[in-house]
Amino acid sequence: MNLQRYSVGNNTPGERQLVTHTIRAIGLVLAMLGTMNAGAQSQQGHAAGSSQEVAFKKAIRQLYDIKESAWTKGDVEAIVTRFYAPDAVSVGEGDPTTLKGTKRFREAYKQLLRDITSVRVESVRSVVNGNAGWDWANFYANVKPEKAREYPQSPVRILFLFSKEKGRWICKGDIFVTGKFDDPL
Fold it and tell me: Mind listing the pLDDT tens digit for each residue in 73-96?
């Protein structure tokens, strides 16, 4: 996740198109959520508290723990290779830069870890269906005082998108906006 604010207009037409497609895709996922969630409540394995949901929440909490611990240790590689998928995408409010892929994530996280001393992810609501899951969360960042003007106020609301690949959950991307989710959603 690239929290640093940049001036609007610094992105290329390709990046703008990727942001547009990403936002549309997330909008589609969110629109489908209502339909899927209503149907899933009646299906065994999808109801709130199901074994699938419990396992998903446990797995993503472990991923969040990896990210939080790696951040505190300054371990960029753990974040970009153990938390995010190689083709992950990250976009956010006020930031025209779109991160896509390990190389871009690595570049961004090197700076983020210099500017932000620690983070905490507070899961607010999770949904899982087979090998796809998403989690709305509050993302808290302890930004160094001299860098505070360059970042949104903590926390930010974030939607993490996960995929189960080769038997393990991995983050395929995220989108963030300012503010805090009220618990529960």
Answer: 999 999 999 999 999 999 999 888
pLDDT tens digits along 122-169: 999 999 999 999 999 999 999 999 999 999 999 999 999 999 999 999
Cβ(159)–Cβ(136) below 8 Å: yes
* Averaged pLDDT, 41-45: 38
Q: How far apart are CA 46 and CA 127, in angstroms?
A: 9
Tokens found for residue 29: 């996922």
Long-range contacts of 81-89 (CB under 8 A, 24+ apart): 83/170, 83/171, 84/170, 84/171, 84/173, 85/163, 85/165, 85/170, 85/171, 85/172, 87/172, 88/171, 88/172, 88/173, 88/174, 89/18, 89/22, 89/172, 89/173
